[in-house]
């Protein structure tokens, strides 16, 4: 496994729409493992293909927050099929926007289907942190960032700091 380089804002790849994976090859599996290793090393609880410069509909997540019981999800072509009407607010950050976070409101639970690493179709219902994480990562596949879900005022504030940081490096 290889730790891949994480792309940060304002890299334009983060605003592109990732393409569906047509065929699961060894390269796909290797990529999912690289993504998991990159996420754990960062450390983070989720990572999407575009964040390591791969415009493929692949996401990895581990929201267990417990080293002894890793719960690694590696999803290919995830699609939300249903989501709750009620929303809840959680603090979100992003490996591509390091050092910034904000409260984001999203549906409480989601039902989604995806293909796993072995090519098996799966359907799950997720709630709480995992539900928020899934929505955050699927957003990445559509070029959407968590800052798109917050007030313009808060977004402009984060964006100004990001651009200042970019200028300083
Ligand atoms: Zn993110």
Describe this structure in words.
- The protein has 169 residues and is of the alpha+beta class.
- The protein has one domain: Alpha-Beta Complex (Peptide Deformylase).
- It has three helices and seven strands.
- The longest helix is centred in the last third of the chain and has 17 residues, at 152-168.
- It binds zinc ion (ZN).
What's the order of the H and E elements? HEEEEEEEHH
Strand ordering within the main sheet: 1-2-3-6-7
The secondary-structure class comes to alpha+beta
Just name the CATH architecture. Alpha-Beta Complex
Highest CATH level, the class: Alpha Beta
Ligand types: zinc ion
Give the name of the CATH superfamily: Peptide deformylase
CATH topology: Peptide Deformylase
The stretches of 5 or more residues where confidence is low (pLDDT under 50) are none
Q: Tell me the fraction of residues in β-strands, as a range.
A: 25-35%
CA-to-CA gap between the ends? 29 Å
Rg value: 15 Å
Largest sheet composition: 5 strands, antiparallel
Number of helices: 3
What is the global morphology?
Answer: globular
Helix percent reads 25-40%
In total, the number of strands is 7
- How many structural domains? 1
Q: Provide the residue-averaged pLDDT.
A: 95
Please summarize what this structure is.
The protein is α+β, with helices and mostly antiparallel strands and 169 residues long.
């Amino acid at each position: 496994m290889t730790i891949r380089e994480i792309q940060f804002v304002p890299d334009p790849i983060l605003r592109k729409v990732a393409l569906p994976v047509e065929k699961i090859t060894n390269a796909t599996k290797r990529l999912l493992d690289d993504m998991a290793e990159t996420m754990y090393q960062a450390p983070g609880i989720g990572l999407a293909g575009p964040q390591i410069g791969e415009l493929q509909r692949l996401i990895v997540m581990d929201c267990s927050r417990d080293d002894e019981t890793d719960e690694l999800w590696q999803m290919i072509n995830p699609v939300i099929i249903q989501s709750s009407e009620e929303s809840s607010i959680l603090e979100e950050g992003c490996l591509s926007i390091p050092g910034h976070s904000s409260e984001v409101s999203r549906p409480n639970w989601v039902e989604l289907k995806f293909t796993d690493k072995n090519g098996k179709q799966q359907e799950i219902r997720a709630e709480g942190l995992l539900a928020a994480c899934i929505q955050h990562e699927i957003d990445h596949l559509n070029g959407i960032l968590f800052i798109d879900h917050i007030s313009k005022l808060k977004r402009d504030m984060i964006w100004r700091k990001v651009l200042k940081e970019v200028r300083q490096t």
